[in-house]
Amino acid sequence: ETGVTQSPTHLIKTRGQQVTLRCSSQSGHNTVSWYQQALGQGPQFIFQYYREEENGRGNFPPRFSGLQFPNYSSELNVNALELDDSALYLCASSLLDGTDTQYFGPGTRLTVL
Amino acid sequence: GQQVMQIPQYQHVQEGEDFTTYCNSSTTLSNIQWYKQRPGGHPVFLIQLVKSGEVKKQKRLTFQFGEAKKNSSLHITATQTTDVGTYFCAGAWAGNMLTFGGGTRLMVKP
After folding, report:
1. What is the pLDDT of residue A39?
2. CA–CA separation, A47 and A36 (whole Å)
3. From its phi and psi, is residue A51 left (phi > 0), alpha (psi between -120 and 50) or beta?
């Protein structure tokens, strides 16, 4: 177990709705990254937060946004959901100390109908 | 943008046979990491390679990083049914924002 938790485990939404996914980092980790994993594919980097600031972003539209809180927990928000947003959403916590090792949570399975 | 290609996409082996998956980047990496994802699970960190030409072993698993830091491989000796899953390489260029390969799904026949 990595100590990274995510909620909810599963979620079903309809097109056009908004969703918030949550992540609790491993104790002591100051960095959280979010990834989207479509079925049968590798995880795709969405963005990373370091000490409450966005530290990097992948090729995702602005309707994907995030927050990191002082306790280093994090949220991923997706507005105007599209069918293609159906995926497993993974958060990974780490320390920006040069080791780069990321510890993944169990993920949230989002289905958009 | 930076891309990481991984082959093969699938591999069926008989239990006891060896297995290798290969990872290639078009540009020099800062480091490469390997993850295993069991069906229905999430990626689990296996190892990180940082140095040019680095070779690391974990029991039956051998990981290599190429001299140019553009390619890597994972070799499993004498596969077991517990090795079943998808193996991902993930490259890092700056910081620890990872670009994952497409993964190699390993299936082992008992």
Report:
1. 92
2. 10
3. left
